[in-house]
Amino acid sequence: MHGSISARPASSMGLSMSAVARPPLIVHVIHHLGVGGLENGLVNLINHMPVERYRHAIVCLKGYSDFRRRILREDVEIFALNKREGHDLAVYRNLFRLLRRLRPDIVHTRNLGTMEAQVVAAAAGVRVRIHGEHGRDMFDLHGKNRKYNLLRRVIRPLIHHFIPVSRDLEGWLVETVGAVPQRVDQVYNGVDSVRFHPRDGARMDGVIREFFPDDAFVVGSVGRMADVKNYPGLVRAFLQVLEQEPMARERLRLLIVGEGVTRAACLGMLREAGAESLAWLPGERADIPELMRAMDLFVLPSLGEGISNTILEAMSTGLPVVATRVGGNGELVREGHTGMLVPPADPQALAQAILAYYRAPDQAVRHGKAARRLVEAGFSMEAMTRGYLQVYDKALGIRSS
Fold it and tell me: Are 58 and 30 in contact (CB under 8 A)?
C-alpha cells in the first residue's frame, strides 16, 4: 500500500540484537536492494564488518529482492519505503518517522538517487551523515549535469564525510561538487578472493558443457543489462570477430550473465547474425563464481563506471580483463599486464582486443595470473572493511584500534 513501510530481517531466523552495550547503529539508505555492484558492495561490507563494532539496518526507498538473503548477519533489519515513481513526498515523511524511531548514530546514503535523504536525516537529528559515490548512470555519465550538480552542492553542507569508491570520483567530488578534501575518504571495493578463485581443472559440468566445447575460448561478462553497461556493444564486437576470423566459430563463445532492458536486443542481434548457438545469455544467476570460472576472458563494455565489482571478481578468478577507458576502470586494469583498455562505444576496438587474446591464449593466462596477484595485494575484503571502519570511527570520534 502506498505510504506504508514494510520490514523484515535479512535472515529468516529473525533479529538477535544484544540489549547490553550495543554498538553504534548505521542506517544505510539505498534505492533498491537487488543484484548490482553497489548493492553487492554493501552486502560484502556488512558481512565482513566485526559484529562488535557496528550494527546495521538498510532502508530501501523502493524495495528489496531475495538478494537480501546474501546478508549473513541475523541482526540486520531491512525496510522498504515503497516509493512511487516520480516525486513522492510521502516517502520522505515515512523516512523521517523511521529515523526518529531507529535513532541511528550514522546515516550512510549512496549515489544521487538517495542524496535527498541527507536532508531528512539532518531534520531527524542524526548525529553523523555520510554519503557514498559508486558511479553514475546514463542520465549523468560524466557528472556534468548542471541541475544534478546544483542539487549536490545544495545538500553538500549537510554531509560530514564523502566516500567515493575510485580516485576518479574523488577528484570529481572535490573539483565539481566542491567537497572539502579533508572530508573525502576514497575506499576501493573489496573482493572475496576465496569465493572467486581461479579455475582448477575442467570447466563446470552441467549446462555449461552443453553450450561450450572443451576447447572453447569463452568471452564473458556479468552485470545488469542496463543501457549504461552497453552490452549490445559487446555483441557487436563479438560478431565483428566472427566476421574477421570465420574459423573462430569453431571455438569462440560468448557468455553474458545478467538481466535487464538490453538483453532482448542482444539476443535479437545474435539471432539475426546466425550466431545464437555461439552465445549463452542465461539472465540472472546465483552461481556467478562458477560461471566466471568457465570464462577465458572477461569484457566490460560499459559507458560509465565507478569501481566495477565484476572486474575485481574477474581478476580474482584469474581472468584477463578488457574494459572501456571510463571511470575507475583504469585504476583496476593494468594495460599490457592484467588486461587491455579500449575507448567506450567503439565495437571495432573491443573486437580487436578480444581477437588479440583469442589468438594468444598463453598471454591471456599470463595476464589472468597477474590480475589475481594484483587483487590479493591491493583489493582484499579486509582492506575495504578497514577503510570504512576508519571513516565511521573518525566521524563518530572513536579512536580506531
Answer: yes
Cβ atoms < 10 Å from Cβ of 97: 13
What would the pLDDT profile of 152-165 be if each residue is shown by its tens digit?
999 999 999 999 99
Q: Which residue has the cell 584477463?
A: 320
Q: Which residues of the chain have pLDDT under 70?
A: 1-4, 6, 8-20, 202-210, 400-401
Q: What are phi and psi of 250, to 5 degrees?
A: -70, -35
- In the chain, the domains with their CATH numbers are 6-188+381-396 (3.40.50.2000), 207-378 (3.40.50.2000)
* Residues 210, 215, 219: CA angle, nearest 5 degrees: 80
Closest-CA residue to 242 (of 233, 253, 231, 232): 253
| pTM for this prediction | 0.85
Task: Provide the pLDDT for residue 18.
Answer: 41
Beta strands in 186-320 (DSSP E): 217-222, 252-257, 279-283, 297-300
**Per-residue pLDDT at 132:** 98
Task: Tell me if residue 74 falls in helix, strand or coil.
Answer: coil
Calculate the CA dihedral of residues 18, 22, 28, 29 and round it to 10 degrees: 80
Residue 2 has a pLDDT of 40
Residue indicated by cell numbers 567506450: 344
Q: Between helices 361-378 and 347-359, what is the axis angle to 10°?
A: 100
Give every CB contact of residue 268 below 8 A, 6+ residues apart in sequence.
Answer: none
pLDDT score recorded for residue 131: 98
* H helices present in 103-221, as ranges: 117-123, 146-155, 167-172, 207-211
The answer to whether the CB of 319 falls within 8 A of the CB of 371 is yes
CA-angle at 279, arms to 275 and 283, nearest 5°: 130
Q: Residue 99: name the closest of 71, 129, 74 by CA.
A: 129
